Amino acid sequence: MRRALAAAVREAVRSGRLAPGTRLPSSRELAADLGLSRNTVADAYGDLVAEGWLTARRGSGTLVADRMIIRPILARSAAEPSGDPCYDLIPGNPDLTAFPRAAWLKATRRVLAAAHDDAFGYGDPRGRPELRAALAGHLARARGMHVSPEHILICAGVSHGLRILGEVLAGRGARRVAVESYGPDRYCGLLAAAGLETLPLPLDTYGTDPVPPVGTDAVLLTPAHQFPVGTALQRDRRTAVVDWARRTGGLVMEDDYDGEFRFDHQSVGALQGLAPDCVVYLGTADNTLAPGLRLAWMALPPALAEEAVAAKGRIDSCGVLSQLTMAEFITSGAYSRHVRAARRRYRDRRDSLVTALAQHAPKVHVIGTAAGLHTVLGLPPGTEQPVLQAAARQGLKVAGLSRYRHARSLNAMADALVVGYGVPSDAVWPQALSALMRILS
Question: What is the pTM of this model?
Answer without folding.
Answer: 0.79
